[in-house]
Amino acid sequence: MARNPSISSMIANINTNKKTSFKSYIDLDIKDMNNSEDKECVNTDEMWTTLDENGVTTDLSKIRRNSWLPLDSKDRRVMTRSMSSIGSLMNDTIDGVNYFYSHTRHRTGICGQLTLNTNGLMFLSYTSQEPNDNNSKTSTNSLNNFIPFNNEKNAIFQIDLLAIDDIKDMNDSNFISMTIFCWSLRSIRFQMKNCDQTRRIVDKLRRLTTHSIARKYSKLTKSLRDNYSYILKADWIQLEGHWSECYKLRLTQCNENYQLCDSLSQTFVVPKALTDQMLISLISTQTRGQRVPVVSYIYQKNGNLLLRSSAFDNYEDLNSLLKDMINPLRQMTIDNILPPLVVVEQCYDKLRETCFSSQFGGQSNGSLSKIGKWIYYVCSALKVVQNVVYIIKNESSVGLVEEFDREWNCVISSLVQIMIDPKRRTFAGFESLISKEWLYLPGLAFRKTGAININHILFTLFLDCVSQLIIQNPYAFEFSTFYLIYLFDCQYIQIVTPFLPNARKTSTKIGLEFEPKCGQLREGLSLNELMLIKNPVFRRHKPIDTKSNDLKLNAHISQMHFWSMLYLRWQSTPNLEHLSPFEIILLNELQSRNQL
Questions:
Q1: DSSP 8-state class, residue 265
Q2: SS3 29
Q3: Distance (Å, whole) CA 186 – CA 360
Q4: Rg of the chain over CA atoms, in angstroms?
Q5: Residue 432: enclosing H or E segment and its boundaries?
Q6: Hey, is 166 helix, strand or coil?
Q7: What are the b/e assignments for 95-112, b being 16+ CB within 10 Å?
Q8: Which residue of 6, 320, 383, 412 is 20 to 30 Å from 28, comparing CA positions?
Q9: Which residue, among 161, 81, 79, has the nearest Cα to 120 in the 3D structure?
């Protein structure tokens, strides 16, 4: 074998490759690094290739050991601009990092630079990934390889700290192989040179990701909180104006500035007969978690209410508390109907194991039972919703009672309103609903202690339930199931605000905490992505109560669909089986318009 070429020769080779529309790639047959026999048979030095303009592969094995090179000045300026644009400074950088694509079972990928900053990991490939490449156009436009909101083959992409769940690394004498398991059901693998700097960065990444999901606001939480506020009376009139016409209800501000408790919203709607003195007494001594009965929705056709409340210490049920204020009233104790949160979390963990196993090309034992258990919980939630909707429409008001009114009540109350109110099936109505039911009423909007983000497991189950409703009612929603996938991803992205020294200095002088307002949730999406999340066959109904506004729901387990477009989108072989018939029609239409 010939000697290794000089460093200048390698740089010339890389720069020459950049001028073409083809991209460098890796095609490795990955072996188990724990197996000594595999270590001997795998020779990574002979597997680096590049594709020239004639489609002929050129062996780069001779320059493999000299591939740990810094970026040239142009690429470093691009990296610096990208980092400064998100308000972070480069902290630690590793050159010559091999990044493997998850959808190819971590056998192919590209080489580039990995940077760790306060917001996460940023990867910059040495070779630009041209969107006009004939090869990339084929894979992008093929529905068989469609992955929504996929940044795997971008020249620059970032892994947010909020998205990282676990990190596993395997070491040998030459390389460190690091696999990152994300909350977004994606596994990411890097291979780096084994040196002190690499080990230091891996250790630092572990420390940064510890409890990061509990102490940093996600994009979903902050954007909805800032743009759909439920603090002032004017906010409620603007977003929930239907309650103001009911003489039985009023808006109370007894918890203004969270002076009574931080587990309840500052303002909320209650029965008019409940005075502030009664509410203060309930918050202080009578209810668990300092919660009180709150009105979530009023069905305008007959005036029946949907209430949510925590359990009581000194009252048997809602009827004994409210007496003749709301009559008739049916209480539903959610803790006795649906499984506890810990059981749902265990089921979700098993579902994630199945998703990760599929990305590595393996088969998990009992994968069907793990998936089936999750579908069963989705079906159970929809059955409760179906029952509540029937009672509100035909019999009486319903009070949802839960231990602390922060878990299942958010799911059931949101789904009931989607079933009843057509406004909740639009972009603005759906986002304001999440803000009210998941952030403000549970007291998460401005909480400074404990969890500050939405429970991501229950929220994923809620999104799954909404996807079932969209599949059964494709014309009733303004948004598509791809919009739900986008919301799922927004749980694991943090908002990075620019550095504004004058504003921070002013806020410090007056004793206030400076926090710039976050933009709309859909800001920053490309035109193609905006087309993807919008339902092209949506039929906007007139704002009157007609049977055409009602949703159809068959909550039998046989009618439930496994949402593989979300759970298995990062697996090794994406295909049309992951799409519902309606999604295939939507994508074919966008593809015919050259918008995908």
A1: -
A2: coil
A3: 11
A4: 27
A5: helix 427-434
A6: strand
A7: bbbbbbbbbbbbeebbbb
A8: 6
A9: 161
Contact 243, 269 (CB under 8 A): yes
From CA 48, how far away is CA 57, in angstroms rounded?
10
pLDDT (tens place) for every residue of the chain, 596 residues total: 444 444 444 434 434 444 333 333 333 433 344 444 443 433 333 334 333 333 333 343 333 333 333 444 444 444 444 444 433 444 688 888 998 876 666 677 888 999 988 778 889 888 754 444 444 333 334 555 566 766 666 667 788 888 888 899 888 888 999 999 988 888 888 999 999 888 988 888 888 877 555 467 889 998 999 999 998 888 888 888 777 777 888 888 888 877 777 778 888 998 888 888 888 877 765 555 567 889 999 998 888 999 998 877 656 666 677 767 787 889 999 999 999 999 999 999 989 888 887 655 555 555 667 788 999 999 999 999 999 999 999 999 999 999 888 899 999 999 999 999 999 999 999 999 999 999 998 888 777 666 788 899 999 999 999 999 999 998 999 999 999 999 999 998 887 644 444 443 433 433 434 456 667 888 888 888 888 899 888 887 655 445 557 789 999 999 999 998 888 888 755 556 667 777 777 777 777 766 55
Distance between CA 502 and CA 507 in Å, rounded?
A: 9
Nearest alpha-carbon partner for 163 in 496, 484, 493: 493
446-452 own/partner pairs: CB under 8 Å, 24+ apart: 446/225, 446/258, 446/262, 447/262, 447/263, 448/262, 449/262, 450/214, 451/214, 452/214, 452/215, 452/216, 452/217, 452/221
Report angle CA 560, 405, 394 to the nearest 5 degrees: 60
**Nearest to residue 438, comparing CAs of 218, 250, 213?**
218
DSSP structure string for 222-248: HHHHHHS--SSHHHHHHHSGGGGG-TT
What is the helix (H) or strand (E) element at residue 73, kind and residue range?
A: helix 73-85
The full DSSP string for 93-144 is EEEEEEEE-GGGTTSEEEEEEEEE-SSEEEEEESS---TT-HHHHHHHH-GG
Q: Which domains does the chain have, with CATH numbers?
A: 1-216 (2.30.29.30), 219-592 (no CATH)
> Cβ(574)–Cβ(147) under 8 Å?
yes
Q: What's the gap between Cα 450 and its chain centre?
A: 20
Residues 6+ apart with CB under 8 A from 214: 450, 451, 452, 453
Residue 276: what residue type? D
First to last CA, the chain: 46
CA-CA-CA-CA torsion sign (237, 242, 245, 251): negative
pTM of the model: 0.78
